[in-house]
Amino acid sequence: MKRLSLMIVSLLLSAAVFAQQKSVTKFLGIPVDGSKAEMIQKLKDKGYTYNSQLDCLEGEFNGRDVQISVVTNNNKVYRILVQDAIPSSEGDIKIRFNTLCQQFEANGKYWSPSSSYTLSEEEDISYEMTVHNKRYQAAYYQFNVVEGMQEYMKANSEASLEDATTAIAEQAMKHSVWFMINQQRYGRYTIAIFYDNEYNQANGDDL
After folding, report:
1. φ/ψ bin of 121: left (φ > 0), alpha (ψ from -120 to 50), beta (otherwise)
2. Is the pTM of this model over 0.70?
3. CA–CA separation, 21 vs 97, rounded Å?
């Protein structure tokens, strides 16, 4: 009985340690969390200007003029949407898409299960999007898998590799950062980047 009690205490302590290390996706170093008003103020502090008519912030991000939208669920921020303010041609948007892929893949803060998302010069995105409704997107996770695995194994020393891998994969997927090409009018395109805090996503509680 005493041994069982000690095991329960140990498991609770392990869970508590791992829970304390839970982080959320960040945008410009700001956690994607809290209220919309708080997030807007933090982005204004970064130099962005709030446009009340469009309900977005405007400024420069990663070398582009952008519009930033703060999206909430139950009054908690779960997404930051960064969209190009100025559309590009088909050729330019393919280059921009590939450049973003290279930047994310070279950034140690991100992990992706895919080796590469880059588009070839021959890819006819106008035809594919218009005729086949093809969606061009790339997904990354703002999570250090190696460090996450090490911390998990410290807190759960008797866990199997399979359990640890499943737990870390679930943690990583809560830190999703992905982007896609949006088709505008007259053969113009924009990139939309989504910084998601999956912990604050709707999970059916309101149904």
Report:
1. alpha
2. yes
3. 33
